[in-house]
Amino acid sequence: MELEELGRRIYATAHLTGEFVLRSGQTTTEYFDKYRFEADPVLLDEVTAAMVPLIPEGTEVLAGLEMGGIPVVTALGRHTGLPCAFVRKEAKSYGTRRLAEGADIEGRRLTIVEDVVTTGGQIVLSTNDLRTLGATITDALCVINRNPTTPLAEAGLTLHALLTPAHLQPTP
Fold it and tell me: Where is 5-phospho-alpha-D-ribose 1-diphosphate annotated to bind (predicted)?
């Protein structure tokens, strides 16, 4: 499927107007409710199929960030056969007490997977935590990059985005 068509479908499914506060603290009058396209199994499958070519060569584990990156990474794992890790914002104080559940990450090359990126703040925080646990991370992958000047390079990361705001337009 063409990116423009995919962007139009996501727009039709997930675009909201109003006043919204983003994780970064920024406010916006347009918002893409990522859970609306992630909850549509057909659309999510098409989105992740289009993302497969963006996965950097040498990736050993796809690491989805809580919470929006989890459905995306699961669908990507289905398309690629790569194992997945599910990364919490912080380790729980019970159970396994792990920051990353699922695939082992120590000594492996991970690609961080997120749904929507505005500043990349959570990607940087999670990358630092995962590197402390022995993971090698140089790349992140997202469905939508809201900000083409996301400062991930300072953290030694390259962001690969499927869509930008230019793709997210209403049907003409």
Answer: 23, 88-89, 92, 114-122
